[in-house]
Design brief:
globular; six-stranded mixed β-sheet; 2 domains; 22% helix
Length: 450
């Protein structure tokens, strides 16, 4: 393989001149996707994404161009295009490359050396094992109509005219499947099984298949309940949907554009003292962990809410310069085709000490939510929160009848303030970003039913 880091350096040295700052980003990635329907292969694809993105900044004016052709002529044409585009762009005094910083030498545990050796046949068999585990769990499991495996083997190279040059490798694997259950009356229900990791052999087909099957069976024959104010216990999967939208209100861009329900509340109590929210780009084994962010700034752990008190938000170098502060290493890049943008890395609610069973067992009356139906009912700008929910009713600490067809409604402000218990089962889900949450109990929620 060519030395892509040296290539990035060469491009920067050729393109940078006078007051023009230049950055070269190279992504070399192999992605695999396999889809099974009822154990039959419906799709198997592998795609190689290899390309270079070049950003030129001419006194606050930005130009960007990219190419997948690594010939000398194409690369020269690409950086010349970026420089030409920068010359005619509108200036923004806060657009500059970040100053270079030392990158801590730390193994983040994000590379699986075994993944490149795993064959497509092995990945297909993993999916079939998941389907069999689900079907064997209970005779009421009807089918697994959708069963998807994905992985990515990525190599990142970044250099800029400020003197930064760095590279890292990362692997990500994941499975999610739809499981349908049917009872004797003909009623059906569905739920998802899922598992994600940087390491292929962490994917447990029995846990994924049986976990989804258990959730599907648990809500069979679900009925509505009378409208009431109640305590709600959210499973990690359910709460991660909501927490993902909360994360969108906790970045500097949202604050600077006045598009956050937390606007103006830094230093104030915005949640119960059970709530510690972090974004940690250096989490060992994190699905979004990396030694540096999309523009070469070291990643870090940022405490956003500490025991209920709002500490601050995440920044990239642009929003940090605009806000008169420092980047938290949160410039994200999805590919070589786009400039870095502000976003969360591993965003999570710090776990507590109680098991999910202890949290459920402490509740006299309420609802255990296993899945929510997100139809635009969570607004990180206004704080409105109203979603459809499925799960089980809790009576005297015991899970009883299945519940469906209800709406749970609150505001994000009230939801955070009314968190009364946080479990010990931290689980990460890549739904709305990479979001981690344990089981959570929230009091005083309106459960809208019949």
């Amino acid at each position: 393989m060519s030395d892509y880091l040296e290539l990035a350096r060469d491009v920067v040295s050729q393109a940078a001149k006078d007051q023009v700052e230049v950055e070269a980003y190279i992504l070399d990635e192999l992605e695999t996707q396999i889809q099974l329907g009822n154990e039959e292969v419906e799709k198997l694809s592998q795609s190689v994404s290899r390309g270079m993105g070049i950003r030129a900044i001419d006194q606050g004016k930005v130009g960007y161009a990219f190419t997948s052709d690594f010939s000398e002529a194409s690369i020269k044409q690409t950086w010349q295009m970026a420089v030409e585009l920068a010359a005619v762009s509108s200036p923004d005094e806060f657009r500059k490359l970040p100053e270079p910083q030392m990158i801590p030498d730390q193994d983040l545990d994000i590379w699986d050396p075994e993944l490149p050796k795993i064959t497509p046949e092995q990945k297909i068999e993993l999916l079939r094992d998941i389907a069999r585990s689900a079907l064997d769990y209970d005779p009421r499991i009807l089918m697994v109509p959708m069963n998807i495996y994905i992985d990515a083997i990525s190599h990142v190279y970044l250099a800029n005219s400020k003197g930064f040059a760095g590279t890292y490798d990362r692997t990500v694997t994941g499975v999610y499947c739809l499981i349908i259950a049917k009872d004797q009356s003909g009623e059906t229900s569905e739920a998802f099984g899922q598992g994600f990791s940087n390491y292929y052999h962490d994917l447990d087909p029995v846990a994924i298949g049986q976990g989804g099957a258990e959730r599907a069976v648990a809500i069979l024959g679900g009925e509505s309940v009378p409208t009431q104010t109640a305590s709600v216990v959210f499973s990690p999967l359910a709460f991660s949907n909501i927490l993902g939208y909360i994360s969108q209100a906790m970045n500097a861009e949202a604050m600077q554009k006045k598009r956050s329900f937390l606007l103006g509340k830094v230093g104030q109590e915005v949640a119960s003292d059970k709530v510690i929210l972090l974004d940690n780009g250096r989490m060992k084994g994190g699905l979004a962990s990396a030694p540096f962010d999309g523009e070469g700034v070291p990643t870090k752990a940022t405490r956003l809410i500490d025991e209920g008190v709002f500490q601050g938000v995440v920044y990239d170098s642009y929003t940090a310069r605009k806000g008169g502060t420092f980047s938290t290493g949160n410039a994200q890049r999805s590919s070589h085709r786009s400039v870095p943008s502000l976003g969360m890395s591993n965003f999570y609610l710090q776990p507590g000490s109680k098991t999910p069973q202890q949290i459920i067992g402490s509740l006299e009356n309420g609802m255990y939510v296993t899945d929510i139906m997100q139809t635009g009912g969570v607004d990180p700008v206004t704080g409105d929160c109203s979603v459809g929910a499925y799960g089980r009713w809790i009576e005297k600490g015991v899970l009883t009848k299945p519940v469906s067809g209800v709406t749970i409604a609150t505001t994000l402000n009230d939801l955070l303030m009314n968190i009364s218990e946080v479990g010990n089962d931290l689980t990460f889900t890549p739904l709305v970003g990479i979001v981690g949450t344990p089981t959570v109990r929230v009091d005083n929620i309106t459960v809208g039913g019949k």
